[in-house]
Amino acid sequence: MKNPVKKLPLPHLTHPDFQTDGMAYGFFTRAGGVSDGYFESLNCGLGSGDLLDNVYENHRRIAAEFSLEPTHLLFCKQIHSNKVITVTQSWERNKRPDADALVTTQKNIALAVMSADCAPVLFYEPHKKIIAAAHAGWKGALSGVLEETIAAIEQLGGNRESIQTCIGPCIQQGSYEVGPEFSAPFLAQSPSNETCFKPSTRARHFLFNLPGYIAKRLALSGIVYNHSIALDTVSNEKHFFSYRRAVLKDDVNNGVQMSVIVLS
Question: Which of 13, 111, 191, 202 falls 20 to 30 Å from 97 in CA-CA distance?
Answer without folding.
Answer: 13
